[in-house]
Predict the structure.
Amino acid sequence: MDAFIDWIVSTRLSWFVTEYRWVWPIAESVHFCGMTMLVGTVGLFDLRVLGLAKGISPATLHATLRWGLVGFAASIITGVMFISGAPDQYFYNNAFKLKVVLLVLMGANAALFYRREFAGIRTLGPHDDAQRSAKIVAAASLVFLVGVTLCGRMITFFRPPY
């Protein structure tokens, strides 16, 4: 692991993140805006599948998910920047490790949703109720979203000492 961290620190991206004082705070702002876009769009869609805001059709909310993907991409890019700037603060951090596991589970859950549940959700109109299996997937999605967010905040509290 130490050799990998040494390699990351030797990259141009690491140099860019650590050499310019304004890069980290701007990246944090973009990261949190991206997370807000992701949680806002995916979270609202999941809540609709669970039965809240039934006056809105799921298809209408699904159309906003592309903004959530833009937010997710921004968060991934800035997350890579954070890791390149201080890799030892992440790779030895249990909150970061759990965040990565939850991100993988979130992706697997999204794949399951689109493979098995989306066809039934796409046809629902306002006030229609989703199938129980779709509600389970939506609930899991919310749990993963909240878990990723909480773990992201906990990274700073559980960072290893220098």
Summary: The chain has one domain: 2-154. The mean pLDDT is 94. The helical segments are 2-9, 12-19, 23-50, 58-62, 65-85, 87-91, 94-122, 132-154. The CA atoms of residues 25 and 155 lie 16 Å apart.
